[in-house]
Amino acid sequence: MSSEILPIATPRATRKAMWRLLAQRPGRLTLTIAVLLAASCCGLAAPAILGVMVNIAASGGDVMALLWLAIGLLAAGALGALLGILGQNLLARICEDALAGLREEVFAAAVRKPLAQLEKAGIGDVVARVSGDVEAVSEAISGVLPAFTSAAFTIGVTLLGLGVIDWRFAVAVLIAAPLQVFTLRWFLKRTAPIYRTVRITEAKRTEQIIETVHGSRSVMALGLASRHADLVATASRENIGYSMRGVGYLTRFYNRLNLAELIGLSAVLVVGFWLHAEGAVTIGAATAAALYFYRLFDPIGLVLGQFDELQKAAAGLGRMFGLTMSAAPAAAPTAAPTAAPAADAGIVLDDVTFAYPGQRPALHGVSLTVRPGERVAIVGTSGAGKTTLAKVIMGLEHPNSGTAWVGGLDSAAAAPADLHSRIAMVSQEVHVFSGTLAEDLRLAKPGSSPEELAHALQSVGAAWVEKLDDGLETPVGAGGYQPTPEQAQQLALARLLLKDPAIAVLDEATAEAGTGSATMLDQAAEAALAGRTSVVIAHRLSQAASADTVVVMEQGRIVEAGSHQELLSDGGRYAHLWEAWNSSLSRN
What we know:
Blueprint: H1 11-22, H2 26-58, H3 63-112, H4 115-121, H5 123-130, H6 132-165, H7 167-174, H8 177-214, H9 216-221, H10 225-277, H11 283-305, H12 307-325, E1 347-355, E2 361-370, E3 375-379, H13 386-394, E4 401-406, E5 409-410, H14 416-420, E6 423-427, E7 435-436, H15 437-442, H16 450-459, E8 475-476, H17 485-499, E9 503-507, H18 515-529, E10 533-537, H19 541-545, E11 549-554, E12 557-562, H20 564-570, H21 573-587
Parallel strand pairs: 3-10, 3-11, 6-9, 9-10
Antiparallel strand pairs: 1-2, 1-4, 4-5, 7-8, 11-12
Helix pairs in contact: 1-12, 2-3, 2-6, 2-11, 3-6, 3-12, 5-6, 5-8, 6-7, 6-11, 6-12, 7-10, 8-10, 8-12, 10-11, 16-17, 17-18, 20-21
């Protein structure tokens, strides 16, 4: 499994990016802060009122005064609770809106990434970022961040209240602070890397599960079910192992916080006894100070304890922002031709060499020109470099040396959107997207009319659509009508017609068609490629026979090139392939 995961933003960059998101709503953010502060001030009133009530009771004061104070205590508590709920809801709404925008940015950034980079990272890493990471952040925003923020305000206001009673109470409370700070730093230092690794191992587990499910037929046919189950279990155990390490640190973290609370409360009680004995404060004030600190138990525990959940969310945010902030990797330096082809040119490959990381070159000094409107078929045995050549033309892989010009653009240096506006590809493995048939087709050309969709389907011979009960509104994909492999290829070719690019690449797009469907799909491909500059990676040599030029590849090199008849007359490699192919047809 590839370890070339997609970029992850640093903690500092993540904090800056998150603040920029929240700062986009300054009015709502200011209102939220004001409401949370008001809620904290209402909470501050309770211990103060109780302290006054203790003084009245100790001095034998008026019972009615106690009654009014009790009513005030209830009112302050109710108002504080209402304001707290309102403030938390306002904050959650701001953050959820920001997260919704970020989720869209992450998905958009993922689909803009070069396909080669996504393939190296693995589908599990991408899926984890737009699902698991988003879920972790969403949970923190809805359940943790509002409570965390409210608790932080409560701590600040309460410390202020203690200082108002007597500054020495505030000093007593701060006696526990060094242990709390040390504990928090100890916890963060050890768990931050663990939580980042948990997110990474979760992505690896997702990758393994998706691969196993996607290839379930092959897995079952080859008897590899137990092997793949072990791979999934191994990935799960790795993820669980790191998660349990985090839980172990969390347990020790809470134990140390409990010790800090004991030290702090003891200090406040001792200072209260001393100040009362000196006549500096009343018994009610000392009681209020003790209640203030006791009231801090929950918010301090929440603030410090929720760093655990916030770290998980921060790890997810770092992975999400890493995807949105990272630019596409710079192309390797290439030797450009002396002059770029004209903007309306077809395809020009100039001495292109390419090798996958850690492997021998898949292309060796390939030079090829496909003139506008020309159709070129690429043939050769498996491993000859045909698909790699198609990827270089599409800009999915960048040459290590040489240059690939497509529609007047350097495929390695051009912006993906500019390149893909000129060229489109239909591969051997096509996907039918969930939704209606019309929605699937309109992915190629949004806003297409039903007449345009019907014409594209008719052009590729997809008469089977007319037999569907709901026609273009028939649900397809997961949970809907499941097209056969041949029908799925027709839909892919219909999308190509709707997109209408100047240049098209077919990478064995009709390779899996059965004997009965081969002619039908060849005719569909002919219709889709009519009038376009095209490169066809030919699995069946009947496709090569109809091309303007046939290029034969072996071991990453072009060994022959010419028309079908010319190459047959030469009696070279292509002639032998043609003879072998016709012999196989005769046997079948």
